[in-house]
Amino acid sequence: VQLVESGGGLVQPGGSLRLSCLASGFSFSTYTMNWYRQASGKERELVATIGSDGGYIDYADSVKGRFTISRDNAKSTMYLQMNSLKPDDTAVYYCNFWAMEDYWGQGTQVTVSS
């Protein structure tokens, strides 16, 4: 099982980034997938969830209306479009799924700063 995040970087407040999570080694299309984030000195928090076929989507209140989660099962890839970024969005972002245990990627750093 492998989850590889990409797309992070440094962006100014109000800017946008699109994160990707490329999955391999498991049947991606059959699992609910999640984006989490962890800011320095804080606990890891759930940002967004998408059901196996994209029919179920949920967001943390802090990102509703600004972030959009999506997936392309043909490409075994999940995305997180992040708009109107704020300094409080600065964190390492991880993709995740649960199959008898939690599986995590290595994370991608997002820094929102002027």
Can you describe this structure in just a few lines?
The protein has 114 residues and is mainly β. It has strands at 2-6, 9-11, 17-24, 33-38, 45-50, 57-59, 67-72, 77-82, 91-98, 102-104, 108-112.
Task: Describe, in plain words, how this protein is organized in 3D.
The protein is mainly beta and 114 residues long. The chain is 0% helix and 52% strand. Strands 2, 4, 5, 6, 9, 10 and 11 form a 7-stranded mixed β-sheet that branches. It has a 4-stranded antiparallel β-sheet with strand order 1-3-8-7, with no helix packed on it. A hairpin with a 3-residue loop joins strand 9 and strand 10. It is globular, with a radius of gyration of 13 Å. The mean pLDDT is 98.
